[in-house]
Amino acid sequence: MHSIKNFFTPYNFVLTCLVIFFIALVGYGFPDSSSPWFDEGINLGIAKYWVEQGVFSLQTGPDEFVGERALLITTNYPLLFFVAVSFKIFGVGLWQAKTVMIIFLFIFAWLFWQLAKKYYGKNCALASLALLITFLPLYGNGKSVLGEVPGLVYFLGGLLMLDKKKSWQIFLAGLLLGLGAAAKSIYLLFIFSVFAGEIFIAVKNKKIDYRRIWLLAGGAALPLLIWVYTLVPDNFTSAYFQKTLDLYGNPYKTTNVIFSNLFRFVSESTPLHFALLFGTFFFAKIIKKFRSFNHVEAVLLVFIILNFIFYLKTVGWYRYLFPAHTLLFIIFPAALFKIRDEFCANSHLKKYGAAAIIVILFSAQSVNLFFNIKNPLYYNPKPREFADEANKIMPTDKDVLVLNYPEVAFMLKGERVWIYLPTSPHLTVGTDLFQKEDYPDYIISDSWSDNYYLQQNLVTANKYDLILTKGRYNLYVRK
Protein backbone atom coordinates (compact mmCIF):
# COMPACT_ATOMS: atom_id res chain seq x y z
CA MET A 1 0.00 0.00 0.00
CA HIS A 2 2.84 2.35 0.88
CA SER A 3 4.55 1.69 -2.47
CA ILE A 4 1.30 2.43 -4.34
CA LYS A 5 0.95 5.71 -2.43
CA ASN A 6 4.54 6.63 -3.29
CA PHE A 7 3.86 6.01 -6.95
CA PHE A 8 1.05 8.60 -7.06
CA THR A 9 3.32 11.53 -6.32
CA PRO A 10 3.28 14.82 -8.26
CA TYR A 11 6.65 13.86 -9.81
CA ASN A 12 5.41 10.50 -11.05
CA PHE A 13 2.17 12.06 -12.30
CA VAL A 14 4.09 14.62 -14.38
CA LEU A 15 6.49 11.94 -15.64
CA THR A 16 3.58 9.69 -16.65
CA CYS A 17 1.90 12.55 -18.52
CA LEU A 18 5.14 13.31 -20.36
CA VAL A 19 5.54 9.66 -21.34
CA ILE A 20 1.96 9.45 -22.66
CA PHE A 21 2.48 12.73 -24.51
CA PHE A 22 5.68 11.39 -26.07
CA ILE A 23 4.08 8.09 -27.11
CA ALA A 24 1.23 9.97 -28.81
CA LEU A 25 3.63 12.22 -30.74
CA VAL A 26 5.87 9.34 -31.80
CA GLY A 27 2.88 7.37 -33.06
CA TYR A 28 1.23 10.33 -34.78
CA GLY A 29 0.86 9.93 -38.54
CA PHE A 30 2.50 6.50 -38.71
CA PRO A 31 4.05 5.58 -41.16
CA ASP A 32 3.86 8.90 -43.03
CA SER A 33 5.37 10.98 -40.25
CA SER A 34 7.90 12.24 -40.73
CA SER A 35 7.45 12.63 -44.46
CA PRO A 36 9.72 10.34 -46.53
CA TRP A 37 12.29 12.45 -48.35
CA PHE A 38 15.53 12.43 -50.35
CA ASP A 39 18.23 11.38 -47.83
CA GLU A 40 15.88 8.96 -46.16
CA GLY A 41 15.06 7.41 -49.54
CA ILE A 42 18.75 6.71 -50.16
CA ASN A 43 19.09 5.00 -46.76
CA LEU A 44 15.92 2.97 -47.34
CA GLY A 45 17.19 1.91 -50.76
CA ILE A 46 20.54 0.78 -49.36
CA ALA A 47 18.86 -1.36 -46.69
CA LYS A 48 16.40 -2.76 -49.25
CA TYR A 49 19.05 -3.88 -51.71
CA TRP A 50 21.27 -5.16 -48.90
CA VAL A 51 18.45 -7.59 -48.07
CA GLU A 52 17.32 -8.37 -51.62
CA GLN A 53 20.62 -8.35 -53.51
CA GLY A 54 23.21 -8.82 -50.78
CA VAL A 55 24.96 -5.59 -51.86
CA PHE A 56 25.58 -2.78 -49.36
CA SER A 57 24.95 0.11 -51.73
CA LEU A 58 22.19 1.85 -53.68
CA GLN A 59 20.95 0.11 -56.81
CA THR A 60 20.66 2.58 -59.69
CA GLY A 61 19.46 0.14 -62.35
CA PRO A 62 19.20 -3.56 -63.10
CA ASP A 63 22.50 -5.04 -61.85
CA GLU A 64 23.96 -1.54 -61.35
CA PHE A 65 25.10 -0.24 -57.96
CA VAL A 66 26.89 2.88 -56.72
CA GLY A 67 30.59 2.04 -56.38
CA GLU A 68 31.65 5.26 -54.63
CA ARG A 69 30.05 4.27 -51.34
CA ALA A 70 32.00 6.73 -49.18
CA LEU A 71 30.49 9.57 -51.22
CA LEU A 72 26.98 8.12 -50.92
CA ILE A 73 26.60 6.46 -47.52
CA THR A 74 26.55 8.94 -44.64
CA THR A 75 24.18 6.87 -42.46
CA ASN A 76 25.74 3.47 -41.93
CA TYR A 77 25.27 -0.03 -40.55
CA PRO A 78 24.61 0.83 -36.84
CA LEU A 79 21.16 1.88 -38.08
CA LEU A 80 20.81 0.21 -41.49
CA PHE A 81 21.53 -3.24 -40.04
CA PHE A 82 18.38 -3.05 -37.91
CA VAL A 83 16.32 -1.69 -40.81
CA ALA A 84 17.57 -4.59 -42.94
CA VAL A 85 16.64 -7.07 -40.17
CA SER A 86 13.14 -5.58 -40.05
CA PHE A 87 12.87 -5.95 -43.84
CA LYS A 88 14.09 -9.53 -43.63
CA ILE A 89 11.49 -10.46 -41.00
CA PHE A 90 8.47 -8.38 -42.01
CA GLY A 91 9.14 -7.62 -45.68
CA VAL A 92 10.33 -4.45 -47.37
CA GLY A 93 8.15 -1.43 -46.72
CA LEU A 94 7.89 1.99 -45.15
CA TRP A 95 6.21 0.95 -41.88
CA GLN A 96 8.85 -1.71 -41.28
CA ALA A 97 11.58 0.95 -41.42
CA LYS A 98 9.66 3.54 -39.41
CA THR A 99 9.07 0.98 -36.65
CA VAL A 100 12.84 0.70 -36.20
CA MET A 101 13.09 4.48 -35.83
CA ILE A 102 10.31 4.52 -33.24
CA ILE A 103 12.20 1.96 -31.16
CA PHE A 104 15.36 4.07 -31.40
CA LEU A 105 13.38 7.15 -30.32
CA PHE A 106 12.07 5.42 -27.20
CA ILE A 107 15.55 4.17 -26.29
CA PHE A 108 16.95 7.64 -26.88
CA ALA A 109 14.39 9.32 -24.60
CA TRP A 110 15.05 6.76 -21.85
CA LEU A 111 18.85 7.11 -22.05
CA PHE A 112 18.50 10.90 -22.20
CA TRP A 113 16.43 10.88 -19.01
CA GLN A 114 18.79 8.43 -17.29
CA LEU A 115 21.87 10.51 -18.09
CA ALA A 116 20.26 13.75 -16.90
CA LYS A 117 19.05 12.04 -13.69
CA LYS A 118 22.46 10.49 -13.01
CA TYR A 119 24.37 13.78 -13.15
CA TYR A 120 21.76 16.40 -12.17
CA GLY A 121 19.02 14.67 -10.17
CA LYS A 122 15.47 13.65 -10.95
CA ASN A 123 13.96 17.17 -11.00
CA CYS A 124 16.43 18.42 -13.62
CA ALA A 125 15.93 15.17 -15.54
CA LEU A 126 12.17 15.77 -15.60
CA ALA A 127 12.71 19.31 -16.92
CA SER A 128 15.16 18.01 -19.55
CA LEU A 129 12.70 15.35 -20.69
CA ALA A 130 9.86 17.89 -20.92
CA LEU A 131 11.95 20.14 -23.16
CA LEU A 132 13.15 17.22 -25.27
CA ILE A 133 9.75 15.75 -26.10
CA THR A 134 8.31 19.14 -27.11
CA PHE A 135 11.23 19.85 -29.44
CA LEU A 136 9.68 19.61 -32.91
CA PRO A 137 12.89 18.69 -34.82
CA LEU A 138 13.13 15.54 -32.66
CA TYR A 139 10.19 14.12 -34.61
CA GLY A 140 11.36 15.36 -37.99
CA ASN A 141 14.85 13.89 -37.63
CA GLY A 142 14.01 11.09 -35.22
CA LYS A 143 11.22 9.41 -37.19
CA SER A 144 13.12 9.62 -40.49
CA VAL A 145 15.46 6.76 -41.37
CA LEU A 146 18.53 8.88 -40.66
CA GLY A 147 21.53 8.35 -38.41
CA GLU A 148 21.06 11.37 -36.13
CA VAL A 149 19.01 9.82 -33.32
CA PRO A 150 20.51 6.28 -33.53
CA GLY A 151 24.00 7.82 -33.33
CA LEU A 152 22.95 9.76 -30.23
CA VAL A 153 21.54 6.56 -28.72
CA TYR A 154 24.95 4.89 -28.90
CA PHE A 155 26.63 8.10 -27.70
CA LEU A 156 24.43 8.44 -24.62
CA GLY A 157 24.85 4.73 -23.87
CA GLY A 158 28.61 5.22 -23.99
CA LEU A 159 28.45 8.32 -21.77
CA LEU A 160 26.44 6.41 -19.16
CA MET A 161 29.24 3.83 -19.06
CA LEU A 162 32.07 6.36 -19.11
CA ASP A 163 32.59 6.52 -15.35
CA LYS A 164 32.72 2.75 -14.86
CA LYS A 165 35.87 1.06 -13.54
CA LYS A 166 35.77 -2.54 -14.70
CA SER A 167 37.69 -3.37 -17.88
CA TRP A 168 34.71 -4.84 -19.72
CA GLN A 169 32.59 -1.79 -18.83
CA ILE A 170 35.19 0.64 -20.17
CA PHE A 171 35.57 -1.47 -23.32
CA LEU A 172 31.77 -1.50 -23.75
CA ALA A 173 31.71 2.29 -23.39
CA GLY A 174 34.28 2.53 -26.19
CA LEU A 175 32.29 0.08 -28.31
CA LEU A 176 29.10 2.12 -27.95
CA LEU A 177 30.93 5.37 -28.71
CA GLY A 178 32.50 3.77 -31.77
CA LEU A 179 29.08 2.59 -32.98
CA GLY A 180 27.80 6.14 -32.51
CA ALA A 181 30.66 7.53 -34.59
CA ALA A 182 30.00 4.92 -37.31
CA ALA A 183 26.26 5.66 -37.42
CA LYS A 184 26.61 9.04 -39.14
CA SER A 185 29.64 10.71 -40.67
CA ILE A 186 29.24 13.90 -38.61
CA TYR A 187 29.50 11.76 -35.47
CA LEU A 188 33.17 11.14 -36.08
CA LEU A 189 33.28 14.24 -33.88
CA PHE A 190 32.43 11.90 -30.98
CA ILE A 191 35.97 10.56 -31.13
CA PHE A 192 37.52 14.01 -30.68
CA SER A 193 35.01 14.85 -27.93
CA VAL A 194 35.72 11.73 -25.90
CA PHE A 195 39.48 12.20 -26.35
CA ALA A 196 39.12 15.76 -25.02
CA GLY A 197 37.15 14.36 -22.08
CA GLU A 198 39.97 11.94 -21.28
CA ILE A 199 42.48 14.80 -21.38
CA PHE A 200 40.21 16.71 -18.98
CA ILE A 201 40.16 13.78 -16.54
CA ALA A 202 43.92 13.27 -16.81
CA VAL A 203 44.56 16.96 -16.01
CA LYS A 204 42.03 16.92 -13.18
CA ASN A 205 43.52 13.78 -11.61
CA LYS A 206 47.09 14.75 -12.53
CA LYS A 207 47.50 11.25 -13.90
CA ILE A 208 47.09 9.53 -17.27
CA ASP A 209 45.21 6.23 -17.03
CA TYR A 210 46.74 4.39 -20.01
CA ARG A 211 44.77 1.21 -19.34
CA ARG A 212 41.50 3.12 -19.55
CA ILE A 213 42.53 4.90 -22.76
CA TRP A 214 43.56 1.64 -24.44
CA LEU A 215 40.31 -0.05 -23.46
CA LEU A 216 38.22 2.84 -24.79
CA ALA A 217 40.25 2.97 -28.00
CA GLY A 218 40.05 -0.80 -28.44
CA GLY A 219 36.28 -0.78 -28.01
CA ALA A 220 35.81 2.09 -30.48
CA ALA A 221 38.22 0.63 -33.04
CA LEU A 222 36.12 -2.45 -33.87
CA PRO A 223 32.95 -0.66 -35.12
CA LEU A 224 35.07 1.98 -36.86
CA LEU A 225 37.07 -0.66 -38.74
CA ILE A 226 33.80 -2.22 -39.91
CA TRP A 227 32.63 1.26 -40.92
CA VAL A 228 35.77 1.77 -43.03
CA TYR A 229 35.31 -1.69 -44.59
CA THR A 230 31.76 -0.82 -45.72
CA LEU A 231 32.97 2.30 -47.51
CA VAL A 232 36.31 1.45 -49.12
CA PRO A 233 35.90 0.45 -52.80
CA ASP A 234 37.91 -2.24 -54.57
CA ASN A 235 39.73 0.35 -56.69
CA PHE A 236 40.77 2.65 -53.85
CA THR A 237 42.92 5.61 -54.96
CA SER A 238 44.35 8.72 -53.34
CA ALA A 239 42.02 10.85 -55.49
CA TYR A 240 39.01 8.95 -54.14
CA PHE A 241 40.29 9.47 -50.59
CA GLN A 242 40.62 13.20 -51.23
CA LYS A 243 37.06 13.36 -52.63
CA THR A 244 35.82 11.65 -49.48
CA LEU A 245 37.63 14.15 -47.25
CA ASP A 246 36.18 17.01 -49.31
CA LEU A 247 32.68 15.59 -48.85
CA TYR A 248 33.01 15.21 -45.08
CA GLY A 249 34.62 18.61 -44.70
CA ASN A 250 32.11 20.51 -46.86
CA PRO A 251 29.14 18.38 -48.05
CA TYR A 252 27.62 21.10 -50.24
CA LYS A 253 30.80 22.90 -51.36
CA THR A 254 29.64 26.08 -49.67
CA THR A 255 31.79 29.21 -49.56
CA ASN A 256 31.51 32.46 -47.61
CA VAL A 257 28.62 31.20 -45.47
CA ILE A 258 30.06 31.50 -41.96
CA PHE A 259 28.93 35.08 -41.32
CA SER A 260 25.47 34.53 -42.81
CA ASN A 261 25.05 31.44 -40.62
CA LEU A 262 26.27 33.36 -37.57
CA PHE A 263 23.65 36.02 -38.28
CA ARG A 264 20.96 33.36 -37.97
CA PHE A 265 21.71 33.18 -34.23
CA VAL A 266 20.31 36.67 -33.76
CA SER A 267 17.67 36.66 -36.49
CA GLU A 268 15.97 33.24 -36.62
CA SER A 269 14.05 31.46 -33.89
CA THR A 270 15.71 28.02 -33.92
CA PRO A 271 19.32 29.29 -33.72
CA LEU A 272 18.18 31.87 -31.14
CA HIS A 273 16.74 29.03 -29.10
CA PHE A 274 20.07 27.20 -29.36
CA ALA A 275 21.95 30.35 -28.31
CA LEU A 276 19.69 30.75 -25.26
CA LEU A 277 20.33 27.19 -24.08
CA PHE A 278 24.06 27.30 -24.71
CA GLY A 279 24.48 30.79 -23.29
CA THR A 280 22.74 29.75 -20.06
CA PHE A 281 25.03 26.74 -19.63
CA PHE A 282 28.17 28.74 -20.41
CA PHE A 283 27.20 31.58 -18.06
CA ALA A 284 26.56 29.08 -15.26
CA LYS A 285 30.09 27.76 -15.71
CA ILE A 286 31.57 31.26 -15.79
CA ILE A 287 30.07 32.21 -12.43
CA LYS A 288 31.54 29.02 -10.96
CA LYS A 289 34.86 29.84 -12.65
CA PHE A 290 34.63 26.57 -14.57
CA ARG A 291 35.35 24.56 -11.40
CA SER A 292 32.14 22.56 -11.57
CA PHE A 293 32.81 20.71 -14.83
CA ASN A 294 32.35 16.95 -14.71
CA HIS A 295 33.66 14.40 -17.19
CA VAL A 296 30.45 14.05 -19.21
CA GLU A 297 29.98 17.82 -19.40
CA ALA A 298 33.47 18.17 -20.85
CA VAL A 299 32.68 15.62 -23.56
CA LEU A 300 29.30 17.20 -24.33
CA LEU A 301 30.72 20.73 -24.44
CA VAL A 302 33.48 19.79 -26.90
CA PHE A 303 31.00 17.98 -29.14
CA ILE A 304 28.52 20.87 -29.06
CA ILE A 305 31.25 23.36 -29.99
CA LEU A 306 32.59 21.14 -32.80
CA ASN A 307 29.06 20.57 -34.13
CA PHE A 308 28.45 24.32 -34.02
CA ILE A 309 31.64 24.98 -36.00
CA PHE A 310 30.66 22.33 -38.54
CA TYR A 311 27.21 23.92 -38.88
CA LEU A 312 28.73 27.31 -39.66
CA LYS A 313 30.40 25.80 -42.75
CA THR A 314 27.18 24.25 -44.12
CA VAL A 315 24.26 25.59 -46.14
CA GLY A 316 22.59 26.47 -42.83
CA TRP A 317 19.96 23.75 -42.59
CA TYR A 318 19.02 23.28 -38.94
CA ARG A 319 19.33 19.49 -39.08
CA TYR A 320 23.12 19.99 -39.15
CA LEU A 321 22.79 21.67 -35.73
CA PHE A 322 20.22 19.18 -34.41
CA PRO A 323 22.59 16.87 -32.44
CA ALA A 324 24.19 19.69 -30.45
CA HIS A 325 20.83 21.43 -30.01
CA THR A 326 19.23 18.28 -28.61
CA LEU A 327 22.09 17.51 -26.21
CA LEU A 328 21.82 21.01 -24.73
CA PHE A 329 18.52 19.97 -23.14
CA ILE A 330 20.49 17.65 -20.84
CA ILE A 331 22.66 20.38 -19.36
CA PHE A 332 20.41 23.45 -19.61
CA PRO A 333 18.04 22.95 -16.63
CA ALA A 334 20.86 22.28 -14.15
CA ALA A 335 22.69 25.37 -15.40
CA LEU A 336 19.54 27.45 -14.96
CA PHE A 337 19.14 26.25 -11.37
CA LYS A 338 22.80 27.10 -10.63
CA ILE A 339 22.27 30.66 -11.86
CA ARG A 340 19.14 30.89 -9.71
CA ASP A 341 21.03 29.74 -6.62
CA GLU A 342 23.77 32.29 -7.26
CA PHE A 343 21.66 35.40 -7.89
CA CYS A 344 18.18 34.92 -6.43
CA ALA A 345 18.00 36.17 -2.85
CA ASN A 346 14.23 36.50 -2.82
CA SER A 347 12.79 33.24 -1.48
CA HIS A 348 9.79 33.13 -3.86
CA LEU A 349 11.92 33.97 -6.88
CA LYS A 350 14.47 31.39 -5.83
CA LYS A 351 11.78 28.75 -5.45
CA TYR A 352 9.78 29.41 -8.59
CA GLY A 353 11.91 31.55 -10.94
CA ALA A 354 13.87 28.81 -12.73
CA ALA A 355 10.83 26.52 -12.84
CA ALA A 356 8.81 29.32 -14.44
CA ILE A 357 11.41 29.69 -17.19
CA ILE A 358 11.25 25.93 -17.83
CA VAL A 359 7.44 26.09 -18.01
CA ILE A 360 7.59 29.04 -20.42
CA LEU A 361 10.03 27.23 -22.70
CA PHE A 362 7.97 24.04 -22.49
CA SER A 363 4.82 25.99 -23.39
CA ALA A 364 6.45 27.87 -26.28
CA GLN A 365 7.88 24.63 -27.71
CA SER A 366 4.51 22.90 -27.31
CA VAL A 367 2.71 25.68 -29.19
CA ASN A 368 5.29 25.54 -31.98
CA LEU A 369 4.93 21.76 -32.11
CA PHE A 370 1.14 21.73 -32.34
CA PHE A 371 1.02 24.46 -34.99
CA ASN A 372 3.64 22.73 -37.17
CA ILE A 373 3.25 18.98 -36.61
CA LYS A 374 0.91 18.73 -39.63
CA ASN A 375 3.35 20.59 -41.87
CA PRO A 376 4.21 18.43 -44.92
CA LEU A 377 7.77 18.18 -43.59
CA TYR A 378 6.45 16.26 -40.58
CA TYR A 379 3.42 14.49 -42.04
CA ASN A 380 2.84 13.73 -45.68
CA PRO A 381 1.15 10.56 -47.01
CA LYS A 382 1.54 11.65 -50.65
CA PRO A 383 4.87 9.85 -51.35
CA ARG A 384 3.42 6.51 -50.21
CA GLU A 385 0.06 7.10 -51.91
CA PHE A 386 1.76 8.11 -55.16
CA ALA A 387 3.96 4.99 -55.10
CA ASP A 388 0.92 2.78 -54.42
CA GLU A 389 -0.99 4.25 -57.38
CA ALA A 390 2.06 4.12 -59.67
CA ASN A 391 2.59 0.46 -58.80
CA LYS A 392 -0.97 -0.29 -59.92
CA ILE A 393 -0.41 1.50 -63.24
CA MET A 394 3.06 0.29 -64.24
CA PRO A 395 3.79 -3.33 -65.27
CA THR A 396 6.70 -4.71 -63.23
CA ASP A 397 8.73 -5.62 -66.34
CA LYS A 398 8.83 -2.07 -67.79
CA ASP A 399 11.72 0.40 -67.48
CA VAL A 400 11.03 3.17 -64.96
CA LEU A 401 13.35 6.15 -64.55
CA VAL A 402 13.13 7.95 -61.19
CA LEU A 403 14.63 11.44 -61.03
CA ASN A 404 15.40 13.08 -57.66
CA TYR A 405 12.95 10.97 -55.64
CA PRO A 406 14.75 7.95 -54.12
CA GLU A 407 12.02 7.74 -51.48
CA VAL A 408 9.55 6.84 -54.23
CA ALA A 409 12.01 4.51 -55.96
CA PHE A 410 12.27 2.56 -52.69
CA MET A 411 8.52 1.90 -52.69
CA LEU A 412 8.25 0.78 -56.33
CA LYS A 413 7.64 -2.91 -57.02
CA GLY A 414 9.06 -3.01 -60.55
CA GLU A 415 12.00 -5.15 -61.58
CA ARG A 416 13.56 -2.51 -63.87
CA VAL A 417 13.79 0.67 -61.82
CA TRP A 418 16.49 3.16 -62.81
CA ILE A 419 17.62 6.05 -60.62
CA TYR A 420 19.40 9.20 -61.76
CA LEU A 421 20.04 11.83 -59.12
CA PRO A 422 22.65 14.20 -57.72
CA THR A 423 23.21 13.04 -54.14
CA SER A 424 25.50 16.01 -53.44
CA PRO A 425 27.73 18.41 -55.39
CA HIS A 426 30.38 15.68 -55.03
CA LEU A 427 28.43 12.83 -56.65
CA THR A 428 25.71 12.13 -59.21
CA VAL A 429 24.57 8.53 -59.38
CA GLY A 430 22.82 6.55 -62.09
CA THR A 431 22.97 6.10 -65.86
CA ASP A 432 21.99 8.92 -68.20
CA LEU A 433 19.49 6.97 -70.27
CA PHE A 434 18.58 9.97 -72.42
CA GLN A 435 22.18 10.43 -73.51
CA LYS A 436 22.15 6.80 -74.61
CA GLU A 437 18.79 7.41 -76.32
CA ASP A 438 17.48 4.52 -74.28
CA TYR A 439 14.14 6.09 -73.41
CA PRO A 440 12.35 4.43 -70.46
CA ASP A 441 8.71 3.43 -70.54
CA TYR A 442 7.91 5.58 -67.50
CA ILE A 443 9.46 8.59 -65.78
CA ILE A 444 8.82 9.70 -62.21
CA SER A 445 9.92 13.23 -61.37
CA ASP A 446 8.72 16.68 -60.50
CA SER A 447 7.16 18.60 -63.39
CA TRP A 448 9.11 18.53 -66.65
CA SER A 449 9.64 22.29 -66.62
CA ASP A 450 10.94 22.28 -63.03
CA ASN A 451 13.35 19.37 -63.29
CA TYR A 452 16.91 20.41 -64.23
CA TYR A 453 17.71 17.13 -65.95
CA LEU A 454 14.48 17.09 -67.98
CA GLN A 455 14.97 20.73 -68.96
CA GLN A 456 18.17 19.66 -70.70
CA ASN A 457 16.04 17.22 -72.70
CA LEU A 458 13.06 19.37 -73.69
CA VAL A 459 13.07 17.85 -77.15
CA THR A 460 12.12 14.55 -75.51
CA ALA A 461 9.08 15.99 -73.74
CA ASN A 462 6.78 15.29 -76.70
CA LYS A 463 7.54 11.58 -76.35
CA TYR A 464 5.74 11.40 -72.98
CA ASP A 465 2.30 12.02 -71.51
CA LEU A 466 1.56 12.95 -67.90
CA ILE A 467 -0.79 10.32 -66.42
CA LEU A 468 -0.55 10.79 -62.64
CA THR A 469 0.14 13.72 -60.33
CA LYS A 470 0.09 13.76 -56.56
CA GLY A 471 1.69 16.69 -54.78
CA ARG A 472 5.11 17.28 -56.33
CA TYR A 473 5.30 13.78 -57.80
CA ASN A 474 4.50 13.15 -61.46
CA LEU A 475 4.31 9.97 -63.54
CA TYR A 476 4.96 10.22 -67.28
CA VAL A 477 4.36 7.40 -69.76
CA ARG A 478 6.04 7.04 -73.12
CA LYS A 479 3.62 7.48 -76.02
Tell me about this structure.
- The chain has 479 residues and is α/β, with parallel strands linked by helices.
- α16 crosses α17.
- It folds into two domains: 71-233 and 268-373, no CATH class; 381-478.
- The strands form two sheets. A six-stranded mixed β-sheet has the order 5-4-3-6-8-7.
- A hairpin with a 2-residue loop joins β1 and β2 (64-65).
- The mean pLDDT is 92.
- The protein is built from 21 helices and eight strands.
Characteristics of this structure?
479 residues, two-stranded antiparallel sheet, 63% helix, alpha/beta, 6-stranded mixed β-sheet, single chain, 8% strand, 2 domains, 8 strands
Silhouette: globular
Q: State mean pLDDT (0 to 100 scale).
A: 92
Radius of gyration: 24 Å
Main beta-sheet annotation: 6 strands, mixed
* Total individual domains: 2
Number of helices: 21
Total number of strands: 8
- The strand line-up of the biggest sheet is 5-4-3-6-8-7
Task: Spell out the helices and strands N to C.
Answer: HHHEEHHHHHHHHHHHHHHHHEHEEEHEE
What fraction strand? 5-15%
Distance between the ends: 76 Å
Class inferred from helices and paired strands: alpha/beta
Low-confidence stretches: none
Helicity, as a percent range: 55-70%
Membrane topology: Multi-pass membrane protein
Pfam families: PMT_2 (PF13231)
Domain Glycosyltransferase RgtA/B/C/D-like: 81-226
Organism: Candidatus Falkowbacteria bacterium CG10_big_fil_rev_8_21_14_0_10_43_11
